[in-house]
């Protein structure tokens, strides 16, 4: 059939396909029909495959923290990953606890006084923009000794089935 005699629906289908080609190549989510399938004509409505609408991807950076040393995350699997924003008001703290896995955090606001045996002198103060890693097993506590809220962005990587924070200290390593 000559170009002049093609039906408008076929031309429209080709124009849409050509218009979607750059999106398909970028997104990798559209499968175009083969030449033989395209030549076979339109698909009956009950046989039409589901289509996906391309949408823009949105990214919101929640925080970034500096750490002057390497970070290793090593938790026996399977694991549960949990993300939280934690606010500690002035004078409050997390209470003594440990983790059955690891916790990675960024101080978004305020200053966190962290009491743990992993620091010389047993304490370290983290300020806004700092990051911290809590390892498995050891007893520790975070306290807000300042006059503004401490806000933490926290990722827990914990053995599946275990609590995010273990408050029964007999189940901690020390």
From TrEMBL:
MF (Gene Ontology): dioxygenase activity
Gene3D superfamilies membership: Jelly Rolls (2.60.120.10)
InterPro entries, per database record: Cupin_2, RmlC-like_jellyroll, RmlC_Cupin_sf
Keyword Signal: yes
Residue span(s) of domain Cupin type-2: 85-156
Domain of life where this protein originates: Bacteria
Pfam families on file: Cupin_2 (PF07883)
Signal peptide, first to last residue: 1-27
Keyword terms, alphabetized: Dioxygenase, Oxidoreductase, Signal
The protein's name: Quercetin dioxygenase-like cupin family protein
Organism: Ornithinimicrobium humiphilum
């Amino acid at each position: 059939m000559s170009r002049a005699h093609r039906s408008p629906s076929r031309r429209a289908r080709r124009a849409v396909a050509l218009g979607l080609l750059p999106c398909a190549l970028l997104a990798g989510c559209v499968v175009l029909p083969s030449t033989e399938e395209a030549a076979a004509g339109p698909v009956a409505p009950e046989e039409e495959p589901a289509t996906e609408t391309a949408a823009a991807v949105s990214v919101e950076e929640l925080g970034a923290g500096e750490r002057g040393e390497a970070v290793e995350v090593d938790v026996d699997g399977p694991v549960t990953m949990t993300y939280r924003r934690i606010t500690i008001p002035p004078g409050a703290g997390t209470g003594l606890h440990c983790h059955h896995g690891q916790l990675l955090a960024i101080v978004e606001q305020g200053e966190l006084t962290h009491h743990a045996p992993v620091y010389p002198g047993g304490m370290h103060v983290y300020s806004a923009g700092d990051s911290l890693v809590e390892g498995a097993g050891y007893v520790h506590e975070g306290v807000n000794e300042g006059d503004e809220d401490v806000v933490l962005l926290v990722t827990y990587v914990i053995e599946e089935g275990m609590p995010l924070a273990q408050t029964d200290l007999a189940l901690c390593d020390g």
